[in-house]
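USER:
I would value a second opinion on how I read folds in C-alpha cell form. Give me a protein, with the fold worked out from its sequence. Write it directly below this note and I will take it from there.

ASSISTANT:
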Amino acid sequence: MARPQGWLLLLVGVASPAAWAQTPAVRPAVPSPEALAQVPLASLPAAPPPIGLPQLQDQVSCPALQHRLRALLGGETAVWSVTVADPSGRLLADINGWIPRIPASNQKLISTAYALDRLGPDYRLRSQLWRLTDGSLRLTGEGDPDLALPQLQRFAKLALGAGGGTGPAATLVRLEVAEEPPQAWWPSGWAADDRYYAYGAPITRLAITSNAIHEAVLNPPTRLRTLLQRSIGQQGGRLQLSMVSARQPLPGDAVLLHEEPSGPMHNLLSLANTESHNFTAEVLLRQAAGSWDLAEVRRRATQWLHEQGLPMQGVRIADGSGLDRSNRLTSRLLAGLLLRMDQHPYGREYLASMAVAGERGTLRNLFKGSSLQGRFFGKTGTISGVRSISGVLQTASGPRYVSTISNGAGSPNSTIGAVLGDSLNTALCP
C-alpha cells in the first residue's frame, strides 16, 4: 500500500518483530513490579510507542471532518464510536472513540496483528507424527484449519509402516492423540446456540476441516478416531488409539516421523480477516501467545497491546474471533492498531490479509461501484445488534485509519459508507 514519505526511516533500529514489540518504555516514574501486579493492564496508562513510530494523538485536529461525521450520526450518535487518524498520528475525527463496545469480528484485527508480529510471515501450523521410546506413536497438532482427509491418510499410512512388530502384530498401530480437554474447546463466553453452527465449531489442535461439515462437529476426537480407523483399516491395519493431554510435553527422545504443514501465514491471515473464519482467528491468537490456556492467552495478548502504546482504557480481550460478547474494544484502539501495523516491518502482509471494498471477502458486496471500491481495505464484524468495520482507506493524500463500531444502530452499513466517503474527502483536512 502507499505509505507516508520516509516510512522506512521510522523503522531504523528495528532489528526484528520481537524487538519491535518489546521496545522498553521510558517513563518519568516506573511503578514497582509488586504495584503493577495489582493493577489490571487495561487500567494502566498507554505505553509510549516503539521508538520512531507515531503515537495516536488525543486531540481532534480536523474540525470540518469532525462536524460532518457528528451531523451524519445525528440522533444515533450515542450508539456509535468512530475514529479517523492519519499516518502521523493526527486524530482527524473522534466521536465516542474512548467508549468500549462489543466489536464482533473486528476482534480479529488484534489476533492477526499479534500473530503476525510474534510468529512472522513465514510461519506455518504443524501437524506431526512422533515415535515414542516404547515404539508407540503420538499425533500432535497446532490447529491447522485446512487439515483434511488426504493429510490424515498420509499419517495413517506412515503410522501403519512404523507400528513395529512382526507377523500379525505388525498390523497393529498403537497411537496416542494429543488434544485439548473438552472444557477448553470453546471460549466460555460463546453462546450455547452458536456452538452448533459451523462458525462456532470447537477449537481443537487436530481439527479435520476445522471441525465443521455443514454444522459444527461437536466431538472432534470421536470423528478423528473414526477417520483414522477407516484409513488404517483400508490398508489392512488395526488401530489402538488413546487420548493424551496436548499440554503434556513430548518425551525428550521422541523422534519426528512426519510433518504436515499448514498453508503459509498469508493464507491463515486471509482466512481470518478476508473471510472472517473464527476457528483460524482463535488458533492464531493461541499460537501467538504460545499457550492454549485461554486465561494466559488473554493476559499475554493484553500485555502485547499495552506494549504497543495503544489506548487501553476499558479494553477487554475475551477471545480471538469476536464471537464472545464480553469482548470490549474502542475505535481509538483499533485506529491506533491499524496505524501501528501500517508502520510494522510486516505491514504489507497485514494489509494484504484484509477484505477489499466491492471486490474481495466480506466486503465484496459492500460499496461496489462507489468511490470506495478498491480503496478501502478492512475487517467487518457482525453479530446480533453489532456492526463494525475498521480498516485502511487509501486517499489522495495517503492512508487514513478508520474504525467504526455500532452497538444498536438502525442502518449501520449505509452510515459506515457515508463515514468512509467523508473520510475519503481530503479537502476537509488540509
